[in-house]
Write a structure and sequence with these properties.
Elements lengths: L7 E6 L8 E6 L8 E7 L2 E6 L6 H15 L5 E5 L8 H9 L7 E7 L6 E4 L2 H4 L20 E5 L6 H11 L4 E4 L7 E9 L2 E11 L15 E2 L42 H14 L11 H10 L4 E2 L7 H26 L15 H8 L24 E2 L8
Parallel strand pairs: 4-5, 5-8, 8-9, 9-12
Antiparallel strand pairs: 1-2, 3-4, 6-7, 6-11, 10-11, 13-14
Helix pairs in contact: 2-4
């Protein structure tokens, strides 16, 4: 289907309910994704979405933020939406994080076997706009460094978006809300072989400012919140880096034990159940009025209880436990295979905060009483979020 822009291609589409194939004529065009969107969602509160990190992302974000402050000079809260952001160029991630962090703060580092793979990246213009004359962040409002923030993530947030979320979480600059991210924390290097050929090698891992490896673990939210009030939908069925066969492990988890598998658990049946529930859910657009996770972010700003979402047949907590068990089963099988071959390599487990106290410690806050509801943790340390809990509003750093 590839071809020159403005040229046509004919598609013949067969559907079982039709006697004849459908013939469609499509004009090829270069598709440009609008990577940055922003708007005021409520008086005093703004939503900034980054769909992908591209070369102009930092400049586009700066323009959107300037427009937001022109519209709402006394901004009380900002939601940075990184859901389904697969990543992109690393300078874009550095620039986005630098906009909200202190000057010259460490954003991300890499570490590998070779000295050339050991690097540290700071929130300076030479790291996010090396080929541009003016600093795109220079004219941003000073209040942007202090405005309370919530960062929305999910299993589709990967690579560069995990760099941003990890940096803001390490500096306690923002509350991370949503579900555990994908876990793409490896560095690929292109090595030229001949004038026409090259090989791409994995040469290092990415680390957050507090030296947490992103690879095969991702970023665990401070507040686990489902995609909708009825559950996590298809987001709960997504494959993460740790689910991939022969994935690069997280070097921090070499000795970690695999989660125990529940006896008699039917993985296929559970996936079919979740898929059926997801099909019944009404599609929604990120940033729309029916965006459940965005609504919970606004609740957090206002000091109200943030609702985690409750699905049928056991709710969000059960689904997270089931996902952890399926993950443990795959990891245990992979470990036995590696041990049988004498490799002795470790595996990456999907780690999460061990309950309410750990999540609170990471956020630098003390959790309030959970409105008379129980909030515990399962054997894997995944926070059960089947009811409501309350957190104090984010103070200005």
């Amino acid at each position: 289907m590839r071809g020159e822009p403005h040229s046509k291609v004919l598609l013949n589409i067969t559907r079982k309910e039709l006697d004849k194939p459908l013939t469609l004529s499509i004009v090829r065009e270069e598709i440009r994704v609008q990577s940055v969107k922003a708007k005021i969602v409520e008086p005093g509160y703004a939503w900034l979405r980054i769909a992908q990190f591209q070369e102009p992302t930092v400049e586009d974000m700066a323009k959107k933020l300037a427009a937001l402050y022109a519209q709402e000079p006394h901004l009380k809260g900002l939601v940075l939406d990184l859901r389904n952001d697969p990543g992109g160029v690393v300078p874009g991630a550095i620039g986005v994080a630098a906009a909200f962090l202190p000057k010259d703060a460490v954003i991300v580092s890499t570490n590998g076997q070779l000295a050339t793979s050991k690097e540290t990246f700071y929130g300076r213009r030479e790291f996010y706009a090396p080929n541009k004359g003016a600093d795109p962040l220079a004219k941003l409002p000073a209040a942007l460094k202090d405005v309370p923030m919530v960062v929305l993530v999910n299993a589709g947030s990967a690579s560069a978006s995990e760099i941003v979320a990890g940096a803001l979480q390490d500096y306690k600059r923002a509350i991370i809300m949503g579900s555990q991210t994908f876990g793409k924390g490896s560095v690929q290097t292109l090595r030229q072989l001949t004038p026409d050929t090259a090989v791409k090698l994995t040469t290092a891992r990415y680390y957050t400012p507090h030296n947490r490896s992103i690879q095969a673990k991702g970023i665990v939210p401070d507040l686990l919140v489902d995609e909708t009030a009825d559950g996590d939908g298809l987001n709960g069925l997504r494959v993460r880096e740790a689910d991939l066969v022969k994935h690069l492990n997280n070097d921090e988890d070499k000795g970690a034990a695999a989660p125990a598998n529940a006896a008699g658990h039917d993985e296929l049946e559970e996936e079919q159940r979740l898929a059926a529930l997801a099909r019944k859910q009404k599609p929604f657009e990120f940033g729309a009025k029916d965006d459940f996770q965005l609504a919970q972010a606004l609740n957090h700003f206002e000091g109200s209880a943030a609702e985690a979402g409750q699905g049928r047949d056991g709710g969000a907590g059960r689904r997270r436990r089931d996902q952890a068990r399926r993950q443990g089963q795959r990891q245990a099988g992979a470990r036995r295979g590696r041990q049988g071959q004498g490799r002795g390599r470790g595996q990456a487990g999907r780690q999460a905060p061990a309950g309410q106290e750990v999540a609170a410690a990471r956020a630098g806050r003390t959790p309030a009483q959970p409105n008379g509801a129980h909030l515990g943790s399962d054997p894997q340390g995944l926070t059960l979020a089947r009811r409501r809990w309350a957190w104090p509003a984010s103070p200005a750093p």
